[in-house]
Amino acid sequence: MSGRIPLELTGLSKTFQTADGPFVAVDNVNVIVGQGEFVCILGHSGCGKSTVLSIIAGLQRATLGGVVIDGTEVVEPGADRAVVFQSPCLLPWLTARQNVALAMKQRPTARQADHQPASPDSYLELVGAGDCADQMPNELSLGTQQCVSLARALSLEPRFLLLDEPFSMLDSLTRFELQDTLLQVWERQRKTVVMVTHDVDEALYLADRLILMTDGPAATVGDILTVPFSRPRERAAVLEHAEYYACHQRVIDFLENHARQSRAS
C-alpha cells in the first residue's frame, strides 16, 4: 500500500430508526485505503457492506464517526467519487454514447489526466463496449449495460471508483469477462477502488486487500486479509498460486464462524 492515505473510515457507525426501535447496521468501522489501492469489502448479505459504501459515496451520513478524504469529512456526493451499482441504472431514452456524454458534462473542467480519453467513445472502447455506442440500453445485454455504466463512471475521471456488487446479477461467463475488463482498466489507470462483493473468488482475483465484515446487526471489520498474488494478474495463475486455497479457506472459515455466531445469538 502506498504511503499516501487519501481515504479513511474512522469509527464509522450507522443506526437506522425502525418501527421496532433503533437498528445498528454497522458499528465502529475503521479502515484506511491507500492511493491506487483496490480493496474489496466482503461479507454475508445484510452485514452493512453497501451501507458503508453509500456513506463513502456521500449518499448517506454516518450516525457516528465518518469518512475522511485528504483530511476533509465526506458530507455529500462529489465528482471525485463515482459509483457503479448492482443494476446498470442507465437513462433508457439515451444511447450508450449519450449516457457517457451526459456524465462527462458533470466532470469539473479543471480535472485533467494524462490518460484522459477525449470522447465518450474512448471510454466505451476502454471497457470493450465501443461497438454499442449508438444503441439504446434496452438493446444491450445486461453485461454490456454494466460495461456502459463503468464507462460512464470512468468518464467523470474520479479519484475513487466505488463498486456495489456490480457483477452479481450476471451469469458466470459474463461476470468473469467483466472482472477481466475491470482489472485491465484498473491496471491502466490505478484509481483507488472500493468494491463490495459477496464472491470470495472475485475478491481474491481483483483486490489488494479484503476487508471482512462480521454479520449484522452492529457489523464491523472482523479481519483484513492482504492478498499475496502479484500483479498484473491472470485468472489461471491466481488459481494455481500456492497460497490461493489457504486464502480462500481463511475467508470461508471467517464467514462460517460468524454465521454460526449470528445464529447462536
Summarize the structure.
The protein is built from 8 helices and 10 strands.
Could you explain the architecture of this structure?
The protein is of the alpha/beta class. The chain has 2 domains: 7-80 and 160-264, P-loop containing nucleotide triphosphate hydrolases (Rossmann fold, 3-Layer(aba) Sandwich), CATH 3.40.50.300; 89-158, no CATH class. It is 34% helix and 24% strand. It has 8 helices and 10 strands. It has helices at 49-57, 96-104, 120-126, 142-154, 172-189, 200-206, 235-240, 244-264; strands at residues 7-18, 21-33, 38-42, 64-69, 72-73, 81-84, 160-164, 192-197, 209-213, 221-226. A 6-stranded mixed β-sheet has the order 6-7-8-3-9-10, sandwiched between helices. β1 and β2 form a beta hairpin. α3 crosses α4 (142-154). The longest helix has 21 residues, at 244-264. The chain is globular. The two termini are 37 Å apart. The model has no long low-confidence stretch (mean pLDDT 91).
